[in-house]
Design goal:
With about 400 residues, the chain is of the alpha+beta class. The protein has two domains: about 150 residues, no CATH class; about 170 residues, Nucleotide cyclase, GGDEF domain (Alpha-Beta Plaits, 2-Layer Sandwich), CATH 3.30.70.1230. About 45% of the residues lie in helices and about 15% in strands. The strands form two sheets. Strands 1, 2, 3, 4, 5, 6, 7 and 10 form an eight-stranded mixed beta sheet that branches. It has a two-stranded antiparallel sheet with strand order 8-9. A hairpin with a 2-residue loop joins strand 4 and strand 5. The longest helix has about 40 residues. It is globular, with a radius of gyration of 26 Å. The N terminus is likely disordered.
Length: about 400
């Protein structure tokens, strides 16, 4: 879709704030009165006969959940659902197809055309994305991509948060899973405002860190990555130099078959939290968790090696977790959509499968980059044929001079 869909003559809609004037960011989001069939919400929310009282796309709650879900809906969705899809597009001053593209990118599901699905606050969010297009700051595809980053990451984040609350109620309160999920619903309005406040600060802090590593320090990293290269590497055109590592729990599939859901959940959470803490302490970034495996990166081979060794040692010593196979490859990558791509990532993944439990394997280029650092010992291993790379000469990475990451 081109910007011809966004006529310059159409003014950016003026969208009034949905909150009452006295509302503050730190004010509780719990409504003054629960929205139940017997007590329609104050503050303008329609009663039970209106389609705006609850999202018609949501499944019908089971008995005992109706009042809690209506209360939560009123506390989290600010203002009544007052606009259909076409009415929202008209308010934004764009074709329906453009408006639909915006809210789908932000993670809003598409309902029936006649449903009252959107609020004034929704209009403010859509208008913010639209403003990026109309101002000329971004073209439509880029603005939609940024909107999609918000929608997808927020979805993952809230699922994580809800499941953490459920697990806490099960572990500390001795509740059954259904009871814990009901308790999580009751607790959410109390914790939303503190989490929102933290997110606003952390977003800016993380953006600052990302700007540094993805712009300011890029040239230095590429220059450092030239060591040991002959110009024939497949990753040469890629824009970022990174140490890329994987840590893979040993025998996870077998173990998971013998565990109940609570034990499995505890193991997965412990693995992710331990890895995240070590990677962050080492100055790296946890790119993603893939079941029993984490993918991380760092800006130098030395930082990556320190993290890799610390992960291997910590997981081997953990009384709950199995040991891990760890790998590291220093090279160039492409960063897109919050993930990293390229031959270096693929090689690191292949090396993980070759590593013995409790060890760290690196490729020849990474070994050469680390060979003059007394903190590391490199033991050459027999050549191996690796799918997609041919013959690879891995080295076992071990600690030389004492090095310890400060991890609580």
């Amino acid at each position: 879709m081109t910007r011809s869909h966004l006529p310059d003559t159409a003014p950016l809609p003026v969208i009034p704030p949905a909150r009452a004037p006295e509302a503050r960011p730190d004010a509780p989001v719990t409504p003054d009165a629960p929205v139940t069939p017997e007590n329609p919400a104050t503050s303008g929310a329609p009663g039970p006969s209106s389609t705006a009282a609850a999202d018609p796309r949501d499944p019908v709650p089971t008995a005992g959940w109706t009042g809690a879900m209506r209360t939560l809906d009123a506390g989290l969705v600010v203002g009544p659902r007052s606009y259909t899809q076409r009415e929202m597009a008209d308010r934004l001053g764009v074709p329906l197809a453009t408006a639909r593209r915006i809210w789908r990118a932000l993670g809003y599901p598409s309902g029936k055309d006649g449903d009252k699905a959107f609020t004034d606050e929704d209009a403010r969010a859509f208008g913010a994305v639209l403003h990026l297009m109309r101002s000329g700051a971004l073209n439509e595809d880029t603005a939609i991509s940024l909107a999609r980053s918000i929608g997808q990451l927020m979805d993952r984040m809230v699922v994580w948060q809800i499941e953490a609350l459920v697990e806490d109620k099960i572990a500390s309160g001795g509740m059954s899973d259904p009871s814990a999920r009901r308790a999580a619903v009751d607790l959410l309005p109390e914790i939303v405002s503190p989490l929102e406040e933290a997110m606003e600060v952390v977003y800016r802090r993380q953006l600052n860190r990302a700007v540094q590593r993805l712009t300011v320090r890029v040239e230095a990293g590429l220059a450092a990555s030239e060591q040991g290269r002959d110009g024939s590497e497949h990753d040469a055109p890629l824009p970022l130099a990174r140490a890329v590592g994987f840590a893979d729990m040993v025998s996870y599939t077998t173990l998971s078959r013998t565990m109940d859901e609570r034990t499995l959940a505890r193991m997965v959470q412990r693995f992710e939290s331990r890895c995240a803490e070590i990677i962050s302490s080492g100055g790296g970034w946890l790119v993603k968790t893939i079941g029993d495996e984490v993918l991380f990166n760092a800006e130098s081979p030395e930082a990556g090696a320190t993290i890799a060794l610390s992960l291997s040692e910590a997981l081997a010593d953990d009384p709950v977790l199995p040991s891990a196979r760890v790998s590291l490859a220093w090279g160039r990558v492409l960063s897109r959509l919050g993930d990293i791509y390229g031959p270096t990532v693929n090689l690191a993944a292949r090396l993980t499968s070759l590593a013995d439990p409790g060890t760290v394997l690196v490729d020849a280029l990474t070994a050469a980059a680390l060979s003059q650092d007394e903190r590391f010992v490199l033991v050459p291993q027999p050549p191996r044929i690796v799918r997609g790379f041919g013959e690879v000469r891995p080295s076992l990475l071990m600690s030389g001079a004492t090095q310890t990451l400060l991890v609580d």
